[in-house]
Fold these 4 entries.
Entry 1:
Amino acid sequence: MFGLLLLIHVGLAQLGAASTVYDTSSLQARSYNTTVSWGSCGSDYERFQCANISVPLDYNDASDTRTATIFVNRIQGTNTTHKLGSIFINPGGPGVSGSIFNFVLGQNLSAVLKGQYDIIGFDPRGVRQSKPYVSCFDSLLEEEMFVRNTSNFRLNLPSNITSDVAENLKYQLINVTSETAALSAQCFERLGNTVKLFGTEAVVHDIDILSKLIDGDDAPINYWGWSYGTVIGQYMLAILPPERLGRIIIDGIVDVVGWSDYPIQPVNVTTDMGHVLEGFATSCASSGNACAISNLTAPGILSMIDNTLDSLYRSPAFVTDLGADYGQVPINAGNLRYIIFEAMYDILSWPLLGEILSEAFSGNYTLIAQATATGLNSADASQPDDSGYATSMIYCNDAKPYDQSHPPLTIDQLTQNVIEAVTQNSPVLGEMLYQLGLCQFWGNIMPSKSRYNGTFDLAPGTLRDPILVLSQTFDPVAALASAVRTQERLGDNARLVQQVGGLGHCTISQVSFCTLPIVQSYMLYGELPDGDYTACQVDQLPFTPFNESAAANRTEGLDLESREAWIALSASLSTLEAL
């Protein structure tokens, strides 16, 4: 949603070798791992070890002896004297590679935790290097052709929904749902019944097995999850016995009760999207030369965005200077909306967004094309596809299937849901992630064989170590309200930390030297903040070069290595986005 990231999903897909196309005929009876055979991850990742671990494919059918293979990597803690075990990490998505996330951020996470944990990254079932993975095309080139010849789920909308716009939106959704149904059939043809086995319930059981193999049967599972990774964390609390659970941090909270209900609609996802966009406009306008459109007022920036969307909606442009692999690239309002949406995840991307908007306001759309166009490279015909549609497949395994009391939505209802989100949440970005509500068109998934159907409530005092719940004030896809509901539902089993003034997806995207010692005290010593709620000010501001000395009053007692690693975590997200 929900990825640290949906935003960096494309970047992650470009880093590291793609997994081979999975042939479901090879899903035969195999013995499960009893030990882990760690090996080299290659010369580029000398500090890491990698392994493939077999787990049951279907946990709900004891007669099914087939296995899935989970790709795992780790960076070992350097403080062997005070070792605290392992910590599993997941960056979100769903569908983002946890192993690649670990390759990029693992050393900094290890430093933040003072080398006392092994950092374990893994590709959840259905994703990237794990097998089976969500493979819907014969090659990467075929996937690129599909993306290029379809809407790629982007809706072409102006800033104001009139009756004519609503009718056009309905037509767009008819096309999108047809494309989705065709894609679903193609995925099912390649994957068969395994499409029903990618749910989060199964992922939690996978983590349980991985933990026992890596750390031993009696070692508690420590976990740090962002975005959709917070869904995994909350499922762990509900599914696993309390004695299996160690110290758990979830950051950028998804409301797991809504996640597991009937397919979610955009009005419930983008609640704070408009506030983040307003934060961009306000900080840009007051930034001096740090933002390319700071000559405009904040209302002026928002007005120019509206005007540009309206112009591209009425008269799509064409960019022809990207090279032969791209040809003539059409640009409409949907492209610009998506660019802005991506930038809302991370304030460090806002200077680039200012440059893109400056060019777009002048009628130059090359930067938009560079960021959103899909090229066709003949060499990709020999490369496997990259599990790009794992997000919908995993989510639709978790969602409640429609029934007689709650029938599938009509096109008119889907249209009204998009209009409601745009009207209530943001005229520029309200519709984002609407495709999560299209599970009825992924018809071969439901009913899932890996859907958790129980409660997410915990009795008071259930957890030996209450979890840490972290949230920004304004998160584009994981509203603070979701974090508040989560803490209230878990009661004394959770503590909430809000980064006051925080803008962007997950607290990790914006430095706070108040949040850092809370994380360290919890993960290293099991110490929790007093009370259910703690407010932490952010120390990193949009369009402002980060100056650690400005936060001197909050760095006392924090060692230099920890501070530098905490800062580097935020910067690493921007590195991933640029890939």
Note: The longest helix spans residues 163-191.
Entry 2:
Amino acid sequence: MNFFSPPNQLTFLRILLTPVFLVLLLSSHSVLRQWSLAVFIFAAITDWYDGWLARRWGYVTRWGAFFDPLADKILTSAALLAYASLGLVSGWMVWIIVIRDIIITVLRSYAEYKGKPVDTSKLAKTKTFAQYVLIYYLLLFYVAQNTPSIEERFSGLIQALLNYSFIYIAMLLITGITLWTGIIYIFDNWKTIRELYESSNTFAKSE
């Protein structure tokens, strides 16, 4: 197992890029906000590329299986929390999504690390896709809204696309699906979760 393999390095790069993305997005300067979009896209590309490298060159490791999905959730959770602070989405929905995603991701990652992978439902995959679509959607049009040259030409269109009611309903649907898939995940994998908990307790007592 190579902890410092290229895919793992890309995973940790994605984690390091998260605070950079936040600083740029929350900046009061339009140019820095534009850079936040570039940083987020680059971080997302590293997610695809490290997975491809791991499969193509046999760099699949337990550390990678643990940290890769965790890095993804750190990035997406940071984006949603930033949107809440900017008033683009409701904070209570974001917290439900973030808490659920972190809990389930840690459980999944730990199960992968222990060699007991658990299944991800099609609905959960749909949820993840919908989250990413909304995150990119909001980021793209928020940056456009805060870029003077674009906002002056397309202000009406941007305002329509950032309609609060539309975003609220979309977030409400995603929040509901996120919460529901989390509950289903725990029930469907309860036996594995219990085994992991018991094995970790046994290991702790043996120390």
Note: The domain at 6-206 is CATH 1.20.120 (Four Helix Bundle (Hemerythrin (Met), subunit A)).
Entry 3:
Amino acid sequence: MEILNKFGRFMRLIVRLKGGTDAEGTIKNITKNVKLRGVNVWMMVCSATLTCIGLDVNSTAVIIGGMLISPLMSPILGVGLGVAIQDRRLLINALKSFGLATFLSLLTGFLYFFISPLGDATTEINARVTPTFLDVGVAFFGGVAGIVAGSRRDKTNAIPGVAIATALMPPICVAGFGLAKMSSTVFLGAFYLYFINSFFISLATYLISVMLRLPKREQIDDEQYTNVKRFIIGFAIIVTIPSALIFYDVLDKLRFDKGVKNFVSTEVRTDNRRPIQTEVVDSTDPKTLKIYTVGLAVSDEEKRNLEDKLSKYGIGGLQLKLVQLNVSPDEFERLTSDVQTNLSNKLNLLQNVEDDQKKTIEVLKAQIVDIKDNSQPDKSFLNDVKWLFPEIADVIWQEATTDTPEHTSNQFKTLAVAFKEGVEPTTKNLIESRIVRLAQSRFADMRFNVVEKTELPRQEVEKIVSQEQINANTNQPQQP
């Protein structure tokens, strides 16, 4: 028991914060730097501009430079300190300065990315649109380090590290990028990251200031103090929930990617087969896991066994597609890195070509139908035949055939005719011969034949043209 007591006293001595605390100096220093005026405004605009340039050119060093000169940390510390020591004036000034700093940074980011000739979403930009629960931890412990370092009589060099770790400036500049590109997803994600960073730095400042028992400027009763604590706790929980949900989605995606990787390396890879590229196609339903392999081909039975093992790795429900390349593993090993890169690019190109071919086939099918419908002679000829010969009930073109081999260059067109009841055979023969002569006079480059049908299928292409067209052509044809 005595050992535990000694260990407890030893730990309290190690983690003790009060020793070396400059309470009045801390309050005075933060209060003095809270107001955003003059030089601080210029530093804020320069910091935002540098950060925007770093984000635009994907330069981490430039982004860090922009964060180091940012005066944004002081108003955020002032908010937490103002609540902790119950200084209403400090709290109001800190909130005003924080709002002005946010507006200036957002405006600078918007203007920069609006006129930037680059303006693409770089890796640094994309890294700040999906805040997670881990960002809450970064902001909180960064705030703890900031207020602890700022409260010492002997100042340390921790403040620059805090500015880099908490990364306040990049998220608000990315929010400006989202506004400039009219992307609500980028704007909301980046602004939410900026907000949780600011809030949890202030929360850490509040908690450490309470622990240090910094002198209060005003006294409030216990009921008001309890309400303030409840509000802070409730608001912190509400702010944290979205980041926890996003963090869960990130973990779920990481588990999925890990399952795919383990499946490919354990089940697909063998001594005689090597997977060289894996991709998940989200556009299909269900999603497709496409694996490109070299070496021994996968049999149908082996593929079925692989599909049954997908659920074992937490990726059940995926459709498995294996693409076999005609290259042995040894040959693939001998390929240079440039060739491998070109091969991967060609695989992607082939996939795009395959998709384009499918679309082209559908278009060509539709065009073939149109060409087939329009490849027959003038369809108005059918209406003329029915107008000239009232004895005919219906007439259509049949499929074209070719003549004997020695006349394959001449195409035969067959006209199927259905006569009305009561028409004499001699009259039918006379009408058929007249139709042939009429067709040959109109279409000199084709040969024609007329056959009699008792019943004819009615197709859309043989519908009678409108009455206006018939009337317009009434005086055109003449009986031969």
Note: Residues 222-268 form the longest helix (47 residues).
Entry 4:
Amino acid sequence: MGFNYSIYCFLFFLISRSVLTGTDPFYLIFRVRFFISDPNSLQHEQTRCVNVLAEFGDYVPETPAGYVDKIHFIPDQDKDFLFKVESLHPQHKGLSQSEAELCYLNTARTLDLYGVELHSARDANNPSLWVGIASGGVAMFCNLVCSSFFPWINVIKISFKRKRFFIHLRRKHGEVGQQVVSVSMPNSRACKNLWRSCVDHHTFYNRKSAQAVSKTRSVPLYRKIIGDVMWNPVIKAVSTEHLETKSLPSRSPPSTPNWRSPRMRHDFRSPQPSSVDNLTNEMSYVTESEDNKEADGELLLVRISPDQDGKFGFNVKGGVDQKMPLAISHVNPNSPAGRCVPALLEGDQVLLINGRDISEHTHQQVVMFIKASRESHSKELALLVRRKGNATTQLWPEEMPPPPSHPSGESLEESMARLEKGLSSGTLLMQFEKLYRKKPGLAMSCAKQSENLDKNRYKDVLPYDITRVVLQAEEDNYINASHVKTEPAGGVLHYVAAQGPLPHTCTHFWRSVWEQGATVIIMLTTLTERGRTKCHQYWPHPPEVKDYGYLQVCCHSEECNLAYVTRELTLTHTQLGQQRSITHLQYVAWPDHGVPEDSSDFLDFVQAMRSKRMDTEPLVVHCSAGIGRTGVLITMETALILMENTKPVYPLEILTSLREQRAMMVQTSCQFSFVCEAILRVYRERFKPSQTPSS
């Protein structure tokens, strides 16, 4: 079987003309990075490479020879190859396109080293040593034969130092001492590339909620709450990447490695359609806003029951895969959607479906959520929508909805019960959506001055004049950074919340670090995500030294694990002859879309950050815009200190305080839900009183 390489590729990056040699036309070869471990478990059509059967259908004896000559299957194909393709075509009859693709994938995964990314290593005793990375873990290959295998479940840390690569393994029962496997790489760059690839594979394949999806029969997707259908909060929101990999093997690997064993099945399934009844997939392309900015508007809760045919009578468009918010595109006036009170209108932006945040879901996922509501006991669909045009463009403080009142003297336990109830019912997310994103009345005039416009990464993410960090200079004293303070339990936490430096603002960034007396920098993004630059690298590779104006930065060490990187730097003021040690912590486990599906790594990172914090010094914290992930981290640390002092925790109040100091802190309801669930998790695991059995 052959296949057609007609692939439509959407590039998220620009290719420099300097890297293209020769004359046009130029040909780009796209390779598979992550391989499907079990094609039979795919829930959605993933492949775009179609074999001959899917291209031409069943073989017809009257077809003249050479009918596949014009199809390009593989590089440098010859007549013998094409003849073999034609001879194989009649052997596969009666398969649909999707079944033919599945048959091809099942055959492909039986090949040697399928899905294994090989990295050359060095060993004095074995010159042909390779490190292989795949869905199940890391393996060592001698002469391309697997000699040892370390599943992800047994790997607790992956790190490197210069040219040495280390795999730290979980101790087996009865063993003492740390179990570490070490190999030597050709150079430090190759070592770092291997580590980066391990992080990428581990992140892609090991989504914990894959187990939850595979157990949907034992864990209900929705449950009754006061007459409404609410999605079970245990089922977390998933990103686009997770939807595509939710059926991959769970974290637990087989007891023995088997790189080649195919699990062939013949109960082929066609991909499910992406629409439900009269819901249509209306593709639309809009400019993607980096801060997911939403227009102001009235929030309405619309309840709809389906008609006797199970239809609601409206169409939707949008989703994270279409790069636009989910909105109502059409409403049939004679349908339940057109007759309900309040009525659903075209243009309404959908925020919640049955209490579930859908801001990071694809169009097809949303359709599935709507369809599932018809199968519930009440069959009612509850939509929280934002209706444009019915609200003022901005609310002044006296017009803002008052924050929810809390009984005086409420305990930590009571506040956690309130938080859990608000999350499960969806009311907390509704209150989050009503908060102002920018505090009315606070000017941002300095950031908007013509000489400062190019120093802002995003044109609508700007610091308030009253809280901006002012550099010590008569001129050129602007940086997109804000002073942010929280006061949990009588103490004061001081942060410098900044955007990710641009190539021409790295000097400004290091000036702010020096002038604010900071010794710890927290970075919550990778340099690029989805092919887009999120932050310029403002530090040198170890052991290099780089000058930023009169400041000099030397990187001494770089220690990496699967969640974050720790760097030790020295910052030198060359004019004063003074030095300062800087610790740089970079969190690398935040997914490109949405939020982490499990808060374990994030909470470990927060603890590592707190161990480095000096009481009197500010923490310099940045992501890309300096508002989303930065706001999540500040909210989390503030909540931790409140819990440690047995004080009640109210995330909405913390967030309101943050937005009074830097606009739009904690950008999305998905981020807000994540930090609230992380707070609840810490409370249950560390602070919740144990239940003593009654006598």
Note: The first strand starts at residue 3 and ends at 4.
